[in-house]
Each structure stands twice: as structure tokens, then as C-alpha cells.
């Protein structure tokens, strides 16, 4: 331990100061921060399904229609890959069959018109 000095500024106040050399200082004074802790990152819970769709509906028109990521096209591809396209294919197949049927009916009606106009 180093010398002890006393400073006297009169009868009102008396100060004393202890001086340490480097090795005595490191052995005597705790210079580590023990009361301060690193800030903890804020924990944000992921949205539940209801909150997700609420936010999706809010952002619907801000989401680009097309794009490799972050677009409606991307969401459709991802969802189709996950769910499968069987439901869509069945709808498309039904529509194609209806188109074929309407085309056949159209041809028959055109033939009837030709037959009716040819006999007059």
C-alpha cells in the first residue's frame, strides 16, 4: 500500500487521499464492471395465424402482383407447392369440358342454320 496524504484546507474541511502503485492498485481495487449488463435483445413473438392474415389483408394492395419473392405470384407458387394443385386442376378440367361441350353445341347450331338457309 502506498503513502497516505492528508490535505487540510482549514478547520472546515479535511480531505485524505491514498495513492497506490499499479500492482497495488490492480490487487486492491476491483475495476471490473459487475453491475452493468449488456442490453438484452427485445423478444418479439411471431404473429399468430389470425394476426398474420389481419396484417396480410392490410398490406394486400401494397404487395406487388408479380415477382420472384415478396409478391402475390410468389405466395401462389408457395401455397400451390404446399397444398398441391389438384383442386385447381379439377376446376380447370371442368371448365375445359364445358368449353368443349359449348363448341360442339355451337357447331350443331351453325349446321342447323346452314341447313335451314339452304332449303329456302
Q: Portion of residues in helices?
A: 40-55%
Spans of 5+ residues with little confidence (pLDDT < 50)?
A: none
Order of helices and strands: EEHHHH
Annotation field: number of helices? 4
Strands ordered across the widest β-sheet: 1-2
Word description of this protein:
- With 120 residues, the chain is mainly alpha-helical.
- A two-stranded antiparallel ribbon has the order 1-2.
- A hairpin with a 5-residue loop joins strand 1 (4-8) and strand 2.
- It is built from four helices and two strands.
- The protein has three domains: 1-31, no CATH class; 47-84, no CATH class; 85-120.
What key phrases describe this protein's structure?
8% strand, mainly alpha, 52% helix, 120 residues
Helices and strands, with pairings:
Blueprint: E1 4-8, E2 14-18, H1 22-28, H2 49-59, H3 72-83, H4 86-118
Antiparallel strand pairs: 1-2
In short:
The protein is mainly α. The chain has helices at residues 22-28, 49-59, 72-83, 86-118, and strands spanning 4-8, 14-18.
